[in-house]
Write a structure and sequence with these properties.
heterodimer, A: 471 residues, alpha+beta, globular, B: 508 residues, six-stranded mixed beta sheet, 12 strands
């Protein structure tokens, strides 16, 4: 929800702060952005997503939302495990494991899963982030049983072999090279998490280190599967053109026999309060423009302050009429692209302000200008026009996110995993509407402070600046 | 969030999502000459999953169609599930392939500038109005295309307002000097940034190699062209090219087609028909000799490889067979390239093929990013797969699977009204008969193994291949030289000087 995109001619290709936030098994498909919920009070069209939910005896939670407007359906399976569950020395393991889930199971051969989905007109992928691992298929409606069968078979009986592990380790290491080691600002994204966080849960990248990936063993895979890929640690949502009673019967048929496991260990997400600013400079082999990242520690998603911070980020940088875009990109021409947003996180989150510095302009000047803008919010607040504009933007982005069956399935399953309720899809817009201008000013004063921030400056190697320095 | 759908959107037809199965026997053949150090983990079919054999009959909804008095073709597809609508003006003849050779970027700068000021609104007013309405209004002209798009979308309940704004930027842009100067600054910074991306460097060189002097060879503006293009140039381009008789207006979503049509006449009354006719582009001439280009990117840990050549245009009767051929070679995670180079060899995270077919013939290509130290093995396997599909007939099952994939993938496009509408827009652009998409599945089904092999032989010609590698020249130049003389360039697209010299002059 609401990770803000970057404005200006560079857009996502350059500044994508979220580059490492979600990584997929295949580069060919993606998860739609899941975005907040429920149409605003506007009477003409209320957009409500109906659903029913049940829990199988083995603890598996299933959610159904019928929609017969197209002959398709999507299934989203969310396992309550992400890179935050990784232990020391095994960074990257949750994602490596996700790759193993495409290597076959008792009744599905290696590679057969994708063959069956794609050759019957569907699409499929898996993604891992800090807080969860997600698998999904979108298929023609007549293949309902197939999608359910495929997800059940791998939950029940994953094939774990040394050859598969070695092979997928290679694929993941290539993915790391592609997305981190060979990309401008790739190392910056890793440095942000390593610097801003103290709790090990979020203090490393999702993709993990090469050394840790090399250390992953078959016994790691086996115990991870047993602990985290249990039915009582998963939520499944189906959205689309099916009959709920039939779909529930099919779910019971294929998932019902998978045994419950002891509850997975809880992760301690306690993050100590930050006492002083953290600041680092990193030299980048490939970047051509200096980049400034400022991160403030903030509360988890789906909390009142997080929603207020999201509204604040819209005022600052959503759309070309936003404050920072107009001032820093258009008027003062200090930045050539920028983005602002609170990260989505179940644990302690970060409020990110990122900008690419216009060539020839000093990064210090840009940083001071951003700080002055944040100070203006702290002292002068935001206008009623800004508040109504932001509410309109939230409403539209919510409605847009409801377009396809996949986006809805993912949101229903994630919300149930994170917050225990699928109904957030219908109520979250109310959480945005509750935010007042005074709240926005208050959270700016409370969280956007010098001692609470991490500043990372990325300097192109070609400019001859120092390499990664200390704090 | 990842934006990896973008790779697919470049393909002309949505069947790009489809994939194809490679049998175990094939995989063994293909790997016999490759790297032997990594154990093979082969694709295996257990055939125990419950697959519905019923063919899901998908009917594409037909849009309402009309023509306004100014010659504008209008297509409207009603869909009331969500309170939103999307609008696209597709204007042929106003795209980058018609630009003067010394002004690359003219079409796209015109498109960027229309939201930076109109006769009645400043840039800031336009931005504020867009954001206040919760709408999107913008224009874009992609390099390599003959068309330009003005796009708008938003809620249906304030559509009158955002449509009026879209009409204003469509008809009355005034190209203010100060905004143009600022845009030029941002664009130049953008050009610098593009050169950090290996895929940009590979595309730039690949398009020059395959298209030669054809205008689609160009994929970006240059510092020089940005300096040269004036507000007068933009105004002239807009006046001459953005004309209704060459445009299609496609509207999808929560609208009433019958009630909307008279409104459109009124809203677009000031858009006047002209006598401008779109010049013919002709077709590019395929290069018949193999060439190898190396773009040096020091410290690169991967080698990005593109290889291919000019294929077919969109009206070519072989188009359905080309779709099937591409499915088999490299359209997705079950294609031959992916199975061999990723799943069996572990050389890469992803390797694919695609092809571009417009009013003129565009290239097919096989492409991927490979670990630097397996550049050699990757080149070997890419050629193995390309040669195999030309020299051996595709097995019946593999062919049937590929065809089923293409046909079945229609269903998924029905989730998006604007995507459904794009099928009809395409029939208009290419002058297809009205029942083109109704008959398309039968055309795919009729493709034979002989058709596939004939096309592979014709277009996947190893002796005429244009090969581009972006990577660390100090590590991969000798590898690339195994395939012939190598021209080396730097990241600015200039022939490299000194040690890694170009063996032949630049390709342009």
């Amino acid at each position: 929800m609401s990770r803000k995109y970057f404005h200006g001619s560079l857009r996502l290709s350059v500044l994508a702060f979220g580059l490492l936030a979600v990584i997929c098994i295949f580069p060919t498909a993606g998860v739609p952005q899941s975005t907040p919920s429920k149409s605003a009070s506007e009477p003409a069209h209320s957009v409500h997503t109906p659903f029913t939910e049940s829990t199988l005896p083995n603890g598996l939670r299933v959610i159904f939302s019928e929609d017969h407007s197209a002959p398709t359906y999507s299934i989203a399976v969310v396992y309550d495990v992400g890179s935050r569950n990784e232990r020391e020395g095994r960074t990257g393991f949750a994602h490596l494991f996700e790759h193993m889930m495409f290597q076959g199971s008792e009744n599905v051969g290696k590679g057969e899963h994708d063959f069956l989905v794609f050759s019957n007109g569907g699409s499929a992928n898996g993604t891992t982030d800090k807080d969860r691992t997600l698998y999904f298929e979108t298929m023609p409606a007549n293949q309902l049983e197939l999608g359910i069968f495929l997800e059940a078979d791998r939950m029940k009986s994953l094939a774990v072999t040394q050859a598969n592990l070695d092979n997928q380790r290679n694929a993941v290491q290539e993915e790391r090279r592609l997305r981190v080691d060979n990309q401008p600002y790739g190392p910056t994204f890793e440095l942000i998490d390593e610097t801003a966080y103290d709790n090990p849960a979020y203090k490393h990248s999702i993709i993990g280190s090469m050394a840790d990936l090399n250390a992953a063993s078959i016994s790691d895979v086996t115990s991870f599967f047993k602990t985290y890929y249990a039915p009582n640690n998963a939520v499944i949502a189906l959205v689309g053109d099916f009959n709920t009673a039939e779909a529930l019967a099919t779910m019971k048929k294929y998932f019902g026999q998978i045994p419950r496991q002891p509850a997975a260990p809880k992760v301690d997400m306690t993050e100590p309060a930050q006492a002083a600013e953290r600041r680092k400079t990193v030299t980048d082999n490939f970047a051509q423009l200096t980049r400034l990242d400022i991160l403030y520690k903030i509360p988890p998603s789906n909390t009142p302050d997080w929603y207020a911070l999201d509204v604040l980020s819209d005022v600052l940088a959503n759309g070309q009429s936003s404050r920072l875009y107009q001032e820093l990109v258009k008027d003062k021409e200090l930045a050539v692209g920028l983005g602002v947003g609170p990260e989505q996180a179940r644990g302690p989150s970060l409020f990110s302000v990122a900008a690419n510095v216009r060539p020839g302009k000093p990064v210090d000047e840009l940083e001071k200008a951003i700080e002055a803008d944040l100070d203006r919010i702290k002292t002068g607040g935001v206008t009623p026009e800004e508040m109504s504009k932001v509410m309109m933007e939230e409403r539209v982005s919510h409605v847009r996110a409801l377009q396809g069956t996949l986006g809805r399935a993912v949101e229903l399953a994630e919300d149930t995993t994170f917050y225990g309720t699928p109904n957030l899809i219908n109520t979250q817009m109310d959480d945005y509407r509750k935010v007042t201008a005074a709240d926005v000013q208050r959270v700016a004063q409370k969280y956007l402070t010098e001692n609470n921030r991490t500043v990372i400056v990325t300097v192109p190697k070609s400019s001859g600046a120092p390499s990664r320095s200390g704090e | 969030m990842n934006n990896s759908f973008s790779r697919l959107t470049r393909m002309v037809f949505a069947a790009a999502l489809a994939v194809v199965f490679t049998s175990v026997a094939h995989a063994q053949n293909a790997t016999s000459q490759g790297d032997k150090s990594i154990p093979l983990s082969k694709v295996e079919m257990k055939n125990r999953a419950p697959v519905s054999k019923e063919i899901l009959k998908v009917n594409l909804p037909k849009p309402y169609e009309t023509k306004l008095s100014n010659g504008l073709t209008v297509l409207i597809l009603e869909n009331h599930r969500l309170p939103t609508a999307t609008v696209q003006f597709n204007i042929s003849g106003a795209g980058a392939v018609y630009e003067p050779a010394d002004e690359p970027g003219l079409a796209s700068i015109t498109a960027s500038m229309v939201t930076q000021g109109t006769a009645s609104r400043s840039s800031k007013q336009i931005a504020e109005e867009i954001d206040r309405l919760g709408a999107n209004v913008g224009a874009s002209a992609a390099f390599g295309s003959g068309a330009l798009g003005v796009n708008a979308s938003g809620l249906s309940d304030n559509m009158d307002q955002w449509f009026a704004l879209a009409t204003d930027v469509l008809l009355h842009p005034n190209f203010p000097q100060d905004e143009l100067a600022k845009l030029k600054t941002r664009m130049k910074a953008g050009l610098k940034t593009q050169r950090t991306q290996p895929n940009f460097l590979a595309s730039e060189r690949f398009n020059r190699a395959v298209y030669g002097n054809f205008p689609a060879a160009v994929i970006s503006a240059t510092d020089e062209s940005i300096d040269k293009i004036s507000a007068d140039d933009l105004a002239r381009w807009h006046r001459e090219r953005w004309v209704p008789q060459n445009a299609i207006l496609a509207i999808a979503g929560d609208v009433d087609a019958k009630a909307l049509t008279p409104k459109l006449e009124k809203w677009l009354a000031e858009w006047h028909k002209t006598d401008y006719e779109i010049p013919a582009t002709g077709n590019p001439t395929p290069t018949s000799t193999k060439k190898i280009f190396l773009i040096d990117r020091p410290n690169s840990v991967q080698t990005t490889i593109y290889m291919g050549n000019i294929g077919i245009d969109r009206r070519d009767p072989d188009y359905p067979a080309m779709v099937v051929l591409n499915q088999i070679l490299g359209a997705g995670p079950q294609s031959r390239l992916f199975i061999n180079l990723r799943e069996n060899k572990g050389y890469t995270y992803g390797v694919y093929s695609n092809f571009v077919s417009l009013k003129f013939a565009g290239p097919w290509r096989a492409y991927g990013d490979f670990r630097t130290d397996v550049t050699d093995g990757s080149m070997t396997e890419l050629f193995n797969e390309i040669n195999r599909i030309s020299s051996e007939a595709v097995a019946e099952k593999e062919l049937d699977d590929a065809k089923r994939t293409v046909v079945a993938s229609f269903a998924l496009t029905l989730e998006s009204p604007s995507q459904v509408l794009s099928y009809t827009t395409n029939t208009k652009i290419y002058g297809f008969p009205e029942d083109y998409w109704d008959k398309y599945p039968a055309k795919i089904t009729a493709v034979t193994a002989a058709d596939v092999q004939r096309l592979a032989k014709k277009f996947y010609n190893a002796n005429a291949m244009q090969i581009v590698a972006v990577g660390d020249a100090s590590k991969i130049k000798s590898v690339m030289e195994k395939y012939g003389p190598v021209e080396v360039y730097d990241a600015n697209g200039k022939p490299a000087s000194g040690g890694a010299s170009a063996s032949t002059p630049g390709s342009r």
